[in-house]
Predict the structure.
Amino acid sequence: MGAGHFDVLLPTQEQVAVLAACPDRLASSRVVTVVPEFAALAAVQDKVSAYRTLERLGLPQPPTAVLADADGIRAWDAFPAYVKLPIGTASRGVVRVGDASHARRVADDLEADAAFGHGGVVVQVAVDGPLVMIQSVFDRGRLVASHANLRVREGAGGGASSKESVDLPEVRDHLEVLGSGLGWHGALSMDAILDDGHPRYIDVNPRLVEPGNARRSGVDLVGTLVDLARGDTPPVQSPGVPGVRTHQALLALLGAAQRPRPRRAILEEVMAVVRHDGDYRGSIEELTPLRGDLRTALPSVIAVAVMLVHPPSWRFFASNATTNYALSSDGWQVLLALQGSAPG
């Protein structure tokens, strides 16, 4: 950091767990950053702990159980459901099971992988409704900025290729309960299913997740995070404008490669992007905006060219993106051991 003359270091992915584990080293090196205390992070970092934290604070979730062994999954009888490993990033470690036969196969696989050794696994009943993505920033337990958007369209890997901002006062109330209950400092994101208009929380991430829609809606999450890192006390931001649509064309193109007749689907998606048709009408690109820098089109152009030759290559683009930053279960156990902590 010192040699590079950086002004601030913001963890954008699972690096937050490592940084939170060594506050003294950060301070002695004069690293300017913002991360929660490790105890607060450990309360939501793995899915078992996150479920128990939300349960303790009275925040709504789908019907959920923590199962200690494979027999618990084999006996599960509420379908469809999601089986979730404690540690997993970008939908990794999450399996949707549709019936008892599938549940038994998943149980056998997890048992063979010794997956129950770190507090069990979470099994959660699937709830019908749209997915809402929630981002927030806290100043030592005080909510200073938040935003919510619907996943209008799903892209590769379960990501949101199209989003629309929404105003959900109930979600802000829940964020205040969670942030104050943990004394949270820094960024915090959640996913929820809107069940008859009310959120049921299914995932917690101790970082910002895709803040582009928030910025276009008038909520500057990143700027607020930088202010906190620099020691400022940011004012509470007003909610963003609802109905603002944004998209990530690259995610949509990767998703098109998974459809029947993938080459045709990819070309149709390209034409929709170019013409601003369908989900792209009135929507703004988040990742690769062409205005001011045509080079931002290169990732999508390269991906399209490769996938037109070999459609299954979408897996290469999607999997490499996650592998480069994902925290493994073994890595998380090392951090817990260094802190003398236990999950849950």
